Protein 1
Amino acid sequence: MTTAMKKFDTVLIANRGEIACRVMRTARAMGLRTVAVYSDADANARHVREADEAVRLGPASARESYLRVEAVVEAARRTGAGAIHPGYGFLSENGPFVEALDQAGITFVGPPASAIAAMGDKSAAKARMHDAGVPLVPGYHGDDQDDALLRAEADKIGYPVLLKASAGGGGKGMRVVEAGDGFQAALDGCRRESQAAFGDQRMLIEKYLTQPRHVEVQVFCDGHGNGVYLFERDCSVQRRHQKVLEEAPAPGMSAALRREMGEAAVRAAKEIGYVGAGTVEFLLDADGSFYFMEMNTRLQVEHPVTEMITGQDLVEWQLRVAMGERLPLAQDELTISGHSFEARLYAEDPEQDFLPATGTLTRFALDLEGAGLDAHKVRLDSGVESGDAVSMHYDPMLAKLIVHGADRDQALATLNRALAALDVQGVVTNRAFLQRLATHPAFKGCDLDTRFIEKHEDTLLAPREITTEAYASAALIGLKQLSRECESDSPWDRHDGFRLNAPNTIRISLCATGHDLARAKAPDAEDVVVVEGRRETAAGPWQLVIGERTLTARIQHLEGDAVAVTLDGHRRRLQARLADNGVVVMADTGGETRLFWRRIDAIDHGQHEAESTLTAPMHGTVVALLVEPGQKVEKGMPLMVMEAMKMEHTMAAPADGSVESFHFAAGDTVGQGDVLLEFAPEE
């Protein structure tokens, strides 16, 4: 097999976000022109701003824009692009798209359509790998998709089992079934997700290993019959089967096991005539046995950790191989240097079951110099900047933070400092959750498996202990905001309820839960702290009453978000800022506390009635209504299913009662905060 030279001087990136920006950076370094494509939702996105040219594809929906093969091909024709790089997701593993490019005489920066087809059908791929001698997890990969047969096969394999979309990847259409009585509901949900994401409802079933690690091998092949592996990555820390933290090399790998897995991965790639960058994913059991899961026929989100430990630019390799060149290095020329981590920053709320979040990024910055970090050791791959909007239409990943160190401990310390230096405002993210992961004793001790987050949920998602300093800092910022202080001591210039006969007292309730201030309205709730603040003069210190403690307090705003808080003569430096109807306080360790506050002087604290409505927690689309109007339900019973950012979210009954009516039907689009249904709790 020999590939002819296919030089091109312009490359179109058929994707969005950080991967589009990443490809543009490498392409420009190679002297290539870049073309971006965009939907209406991305008209002002970073990848559009940075490209040499940009072409509109259509409306916000991916199906009407980024997934329109004919529109992408026409954009390449209009701009004279000789090649298309698909990034990952969207059209990156779409065989008909590759065939359309072949017919148009445009180079696809990726494998041939035949290789995509060979690995795109997970069931067929399993059979082919079995014939090639690659070890497989026990499971069912057949064509018969009858419900009863699938249930029988799951019973035969033994629970827990993993349901997976045959045509999918990235955690879409994938669920763990712990017992037979939950099989049908899981099957229905997986089919809906698979149909929405891939246009295909076929499922495969595998035995779910209880303590496996997810270890994948980066492979690369050219059109001249050469193939290498660029070592492995450990991607065990996942939520909803999507990776959160990745590292390379995988901890505890012996040289013999590394070679065995690497050679198996290259053998799998050559079996299907692969060309370009690919990832062969394995489950690594505690006894050292490994099993083929799937092959992703594209560049992976976590490829930067491989770049960090090998010193190679994999996107440049892709472009050169697409031009018909040979691989830059042979297997014996590739070496591992140090250790690398990648943390995925998502617009989501871990405390609300990882619900995707939307909004506008009022600030997005990484202060390397202020944190004392080496720019050569820390890299932020991002598709957003301050002022950008985070849409409901696409995957919620905002950026990837990648670090390198001489060894795992050093790299992990650098990751924590970098996470603390990452300032994101305006949209809820998983930044603080990533810090909890990276500082968890089990993660530091390499006690890893794919259920890491589930196993340590109690500590990873437990409410952070809130210090007096955090409460005081939040209260001081809130009090100053409410009193609207100015430099003058004149009562005519003040707006804080000044009175002649006594200092004014302002009462604030602070709570650490919820996105609105509902909890802060109830100062008798367990998670609400009431702070009373008063001062004799505008320039004098505050007297704070927090619980049973009375403190003399001052706050001084320093550079940026730094504040100096003095409590009873003890001065501490913290990071604190107003954000999203509350205050975010960060200690010098990087731990984050978010407190929502409300003035409660004039609030009625009577008993609140039970909510009679359910509101949408995010923008999305109604997928299914699971009960009938008037039907009696029990607390926790699923009522309706929403889809947002490619994931399904089930809305459950808040109490025993009945559904009076639904305000939306399946297929309707809803906005965050929209009332979804009327619910009548039992008396």
Note: The chain has a mean pLDDT of 87.
Protein 2
Amino acid sequence: MRGIMVCFCNTRLGGWTAGALLFLLALGLRLRGIGAESVWMDDFFSAARLDAPNLLQFLRDQRGDNWEMVPVYYTLEYFWAGLRPGSLAWVRGLSALFGAGAVVWVFLLGRRLGGMIAGCLAGLVMALSPWMVFHGQGLRPYALMLFLSLVSMDALLRWTGSRRAAPLAAHLAANLLMLWSHLFAPLFYLPQGLIVLFARGVSWRDRCLWGGAHALFLLAVLGYVATIKPAPDPDADPPGWGNPWAVVTGGGFFAADNTLTGGLLCADGENLRWAEYNSPTVLRDPAHPRAADLLPLRPAAELALARCYLLTLALMLFFAVRDALRRDEASRAELRKTLFLLAWFLVPVAALFLAAQVWKPHAFQRRYVLYAWPALCLLVGMAAARLRGPARWAHAAAPLAMLAVLALAAASLPMRHDYLSAAGLLREHAATHPVAMTDNWNLMRILRCNDPALPVPVERYLSPEETAARAVETVRAGTGVWVLFVGPESLPQRQALEQTLRNNEIPWDRVILPGMQSLYLYRCDPAAPALVMASSPG
């Protein structure tokens, strides 16, 4: 039986079958619940303008809000949306396709570098990753950037191995498209430059050609960058180094999110932690019954997964040292593969960390170098492939089990802001509460974007005090009112509103819709008794 399985896995049919199954798994995870994903702030910048009469108008209209974004993804998004106007689930499907395609490309790269086991495990890790699934449902360029990075790396490997023109052209085209998809693409050029510099058989003429082409790419995009008028960032401390030993002991591990160590090892739980920590009702009243069972497991699963990744890096460093000490060509080939993957993963993240130290602390966002994480998936697969016996299967099963827990938990929670449910509540009570109020301009715009035909007008006032005063005045006139807030930072405004309502004996209750930043809906009703009397807990 084992011989049959080995023969099947080593045939072209086995490769096609494994790739197809991985694609279907990845696509299914990314399409699941995609229609229930609300448009939130980052999505809104383009989603609100998709009805523009032409592409240039679309790109120009969104630039005021989306000032830092270059246009390749948004061009594809505009034409893709035109195939099925009005369906944002369809638009999100573009990212789902790119994300699922990236999983297949990781499988193919892993199979070429380390065999079928390495390819399948790398593909499974990437398919299950909640972080990859999250960005595979977004209206942002990250899934496209991820896909292009794999096209680029695959073509680079083929070119350095053959020096043929076709893979070089594909590599350069992918890198140029990446640069015009996200401005942090140059950090991806750094490990590639090291690979070209130290690749065997690549002439200095070819190295200069590669470097000159990328210099021209950067010069070309400088004109666009020069037109950007960035909004000021709030003050923030630069990220810290973190303590890798905390991953072993668990002490202080979850306080290390904004550190280099956390950036390397903790990405898979990022959006899940955000949804849980910023949603005061998520543990008390989870969105799905399964979440009540899975969320208590999240810290242990996330820590165990980080340990798996740390062990993977340690194992691959050990293999690299061992291969360097051997003199045979096979060992040297394995050493080159290991160094290639380590450079791909570590160099962009380290460069981003350095940029946050010397330039802008807010630059340290893991999604900006999403293209580094396929290398981590490949390292997991390669480490398992190089182990033998029970150690191989234990190393393969452990991260997959932890990812399964995190993926199921993420599927049980609303990830993005739940504007669709908010619009549904306003619709349901439109007859008795025909007015909604907020002091948050973006909340008003995004709610309207999620439900353009919302029958309840959202009135925006310039301050929380004015909003509260208008709510009291409207209720006293006999009309029910909604007052809307977003995010944990709105706590002082919510507490002030509640105090104002109590002081004026206005009956009210509150609905909290959890997500990356919870929505708080206060229903002020002139005909009902007061339902809530305590201060807001969160």
Note: Residues 419-524 form a domain with the Translation Initiation Factor IF3 fold (CATH 3.30.110).
Protein 3
Amino acid sequence: MEKSKIVKHFNTQGPCIQGRDYMVDISGKVAAITTNYIDPGKYFTINRGRQYGKTTTITALENSLGGDYIVASMSFESMGDVNFESEEVFVKTFMKKMGWNNCFVSSFFTLNKYISKKCKSKKIILIVDEVDKSSNLRVFINFLGLLRDKYIDRSKGRCETFHSVILAGVHDVKNIKEKMIRSGVYSPRPEEGTVTYNSPWNIAAPFSLDMSFSPVEIASMLSDYEADHQTGMDIEAMSREIYEWTSGYPFLVSRLCQIIDEDLKAEWTSAGLLKALKRIIREQNTLFDDMIKNMEMYPDLYNYIYDMLIAGVDVRESVLDPVIQRALMFSILRKEEDGIKIDNKIFEKVLMDYFVSKDDRAIRAKTQNSGVLKYDVVKDGCFNMELTLRKFAEHYKRIYADKDVDFWEKHARLIFLSYLVPLINGEGFYHLESQFTDARRMDIVINYGKDEFIIELKLWHGEASEKEAYNQLSAYLKSKNTSTGYLVVFDTRKRRQPKEDWVENEGCRIFEVVL
């Protein structure tokens, strides 16, 4: 009897399995980890944001290692409600997970000797996943201290120990203690003081491998899918578009593909991708929930991202800044050659919607009661952007005319988006083209039906700056193969000169509103 063919799917729940799920070819990443970290015997931590493919990578790594290596892996998440209330409980649980049977090993002292015995003349790789879910930080930190001491002794030729140790989780080791303190799981002893960044894992090699998916890697997954379904998609173009929105964030890549395949009947086109984007941004999932939870837990992180997206102020860009380190750890931000940015466009959109709906409800309430109704600006399914901006100027100059410069600089973008979002919701979709080289401006791209509108928001900084804004917007319009755009200028001077008019500049038509 012929064996039935496995029907593969895009997987966003748990690790992907080769042959069962459509997945990116990560063999290159696995080979790089083996060559650069495991073969040299390094100890290291893979810490990336939630649902970043850590467990999938570890599973592939474990399956690829053989020959000279013995792999021992465990996950604190799979241990359920085990509470390491004592050193003995931890050691016995560790021994059981390792498959080692010795009733006399019940303390770190005896475990120390047993590890040396088991690792003699053997290359054992220890992999511990979900390390930040340890239920007793103090015992776990002591265990890491044991591994560190043995690593140092090995380098001096004094003992045998694990060839390589891999810890994986969202929090890096130095931040686990802070996480536990904030969640109330852990209370420092008086002698420990308030120091949260001392780490027993200072022997770890920096893990710099890029775990995001490149367009080529995304194409490898789509090629596998296309071989099964023959949809006729342009694999290269679709891979580039998915990457443009996700920056290769593994969960987002797989989730967009899953929506197109399962919910949109394989509409592998730009229009289908836009529909999938609308869905993913409006859904509740563990990734977005976790990101917002971290924003709420860390006010300094909230303020930093708010200043970056809403206030448009010059933000600190030193990776030594604890706030930036935390945002990078959660994968909310990423490092690029030209600076630090929000990790991807989907995160930008989710965070903007979060700020619009949450941060300043008084502003939002005024927006919804400003007399602007959707049917005023939408006729026969077409959105009238010029009328929308004229109404925005009319109502908001009246409501906010007495506000000072600081108010406008902090809230201008929030005010505009709070006004715009209720009008385009349903049929429309907006996203940001943030200009991080000029924190005073932001481009917003709005899709409504078959129309696309490009709006630049800018604070007033003189007539020369206004001319510069015309040129910048014109250049951007041409890069998008269009010649019509919109410019909203927030004039913070006391003697404002309001303006609502069309301007011709470098072959482009720009409707400008100066508030």
Note: Residues 8 and 339 are 39 Å apart (CA to CA).
